[in-house]
Design brief:
Blueprint (H helix, E strand, L loop, with lengths): L1 H8 L3 H8 L3 H8 L7 H10 L6 E2 L6 E2 L1
Helix pairs in contact: 2-3, 2-4
């Protein structure tokens, strides 16, 4: 999803990394599906792409921001 959103904006991995304040290698790892424990950086990437992550309850579908 990150690669698709990045490419839709016409950004390189380096451009996204700069906007999200993360390393280019972190962006590459996320796009490659490598597991990471740095969730806050993943949130930064989506924010830089103009999206946010919300939690949705599996029980009742309620969305929490």
């Amino acid at each position: 999803m990150v690669r698709d959103l990045r490419e839709r904006r016409g950004w390189t991995q380096t451009e996204l990394a700069r906007k999200a304040h993360v390393s280019r290698s972190f962006v590459a790892d996320v796009e490659a599906g490598k597991p990471t424990t740095e969730a806050s950086k993943l949130f930064d990437i989506f924010q830089a792409l103009g999206h946010e992550i919300a939690l949705r309850s599996l029980d009742d579908g309620e969305v929490r921001w």
